[in-house]
Amino acid sequence: MKTVKDFLKMKKEKEPIAMITAYDYPSAKRAEEAEIDMILVGDSLGMVVLGYESTVKVTLSDMIHHSKAVRNGAPDTFIVTDMPFMSYHISREETLRNAAKIIQEGLADAVKLEGAGEVVEMISSLTRSGIAVVAHLGLTPQSVGVLGGYKVQGKDADSARKLIEDAKKCEEAGACALVLECVPRQIAEEISSVLSIPTIGIGAGSAADGQVLVYHDLIGYGVDRLPKFVKQYSHIDQQIHQALKSYKEEVKLRAFPELQHTFTMKEEELEALYGGKK
Ligand SMILES: Nc1nc(=O)c2c([nH]1)NC[C@@H]1CN(c3ccc(C(=O)N[C@@H](CCC(=O)O)C(=O)O)cc3)CN21
Ligand SMILES: CC(C)C(=O)C(=O)O
Ligand SMILES: [Mg+2]
Q1: What is d(CA 76, CA 96) in angstroms, rounded to the nearest whole number?
Q2: Fewest Cβ atoms nearer than 10 Å: which of 78, 167, 191, 222?
C-alpha cells in the first residue's frame, strides 16, 4: 500500500496523485483495481448516496459505516475518511476520540478536517497522537451556512493571502496533505509550490500535486447537477436506465425469467408427489 511517505516522494518527483471518493464495497473495489493512489471516504456521501441537500447531517457513525465497507473493498489502498460536521470542534478530547474511532472502527489510514483557525490546533493534536491528518481549505462544504453557498474561494487578494497563510499553518501543524477545493488555479499553484506536503485539488487547476473527484460525478451515476470542475468519464446512468427498463418490460411480457434462470423438478419426483393426480 502506498503511504504518506510515497505521496511526499510523488510530489518531489512531480508524479501527480490520483484520488477519488468511494463510499461502499463495490466502488472501493473498482478504485483499487484501477490503481487509484488514494481513496477519500468523503462526507459528500451525505449528498451523493444519502440524498441530503448538504453534508451537515452526516454523522460520525455514517462515516464509520461507509469507511468499513470501503476498507473491505480496498484492503491495499490508502484511505482518508472525512471527519463529519462538528466532530472536531467541541474539544480536543472529543476530536481525538472521534478520530480514533474512524481509524480503529472505520479502518481508515488518515482523517480529513475542513478549515483553519481553531482547526489548526486539532490537526496538531491529532498528528502528535499518531493520527495522519489531511487538511482541506478553500470551499469547505461543512461551512456552507457561513459561506452562503458553494462558491469559489480566494478570488480577491485579501482572501487569497489568507488562504496561502492558512495552508502554511496546516503544514506546520503536521498535516500530511492538503485538499484545495474551488480556488483559482494561480493560488493553488502558489500554495503547491510553497508547501512541502502534497496538495490535492478539486476545482483548483492542474498545478496541484494531485486531483480528487467524487466517484459518482466522474462516472455519471445518480447525480443531476454537476459542478463546473467535474469531467465525466462515463454516463453509467444511461446504462442503468436501459437495464431497468428492459427488465421491467420483460417481466410484463413474461420474457424473463427463461428456463435457464429456473429450477426444474424431476418427473418421477413430481409423480411421487401427486401420484398421477395431476
Ligand atoms: N456530487 C458532489 N460532488 C462534489 O464535488 C461535492 C458534493 N457532491 N458534495 C460536497 C461538496 C460540495 N461541492 C460543490 C458543490 C457545488 C459546487 C458548485 O456548484 N459550484 C459552482 C461555482 C460557483 C462559483 O462560481 O462561485 C459551479 O458552477 O461549479 C461546487 C462544489 C463539492 N462537493
Ligand atoms: C469533495 C471532497 C474533497 C470531499 O471532501 C468529499 O467528497 O466529501
Ligand atoms: Mg468532504
Answers
A1: 25
A2: 222
- Do 143 and 259 belong to one domain? no
Nearest CA to ligand 1 atom 26: 151
Cα separation, 167 vs 252, whole angstroms: 59
**For the whole model, what pTM was predicted?**
0.97
- Same-domain status, 88 and 224: yes
Q: What is the dihedral of CA 93, 100, 25, 27, to 10 degrees?
A: 70
Domain region containing 142: 4-234
Write out the three cell numbers for 232.
465525466
147 CA distance to ligand 1 middle (Å): 13
Q: Are residues 265 and 156 in the same domain?
A: no
Per the residue annotation, which of 53, 105, 172, 181 is the catalytic one? 181
- The minimum-distance atom of ligand 1 relative to the CA of 55 is 10
CA dist 215 and 31 (Å) reads 9
In the chain, the number of structural domains is: 2
Question: ∠ at Cα 51 (46, 53), nearest 5°?
Answer: 75
For 175-207, write each residue's pLDDT tens digit: 999 999 999 999 999 999 999 999 999 999 999
Residue 115 pLDDT: 98
> What Cα–Cα distance (Å) separates residue 209 from each residue in 59, 80, 82, 227?
30, 17, 20, 21
Low-confidence ranges of the chain (pLDDT < 50): none
In the residue annotation, 32 being an active-site residue is answered as no
How many residues appear in the chain? 278
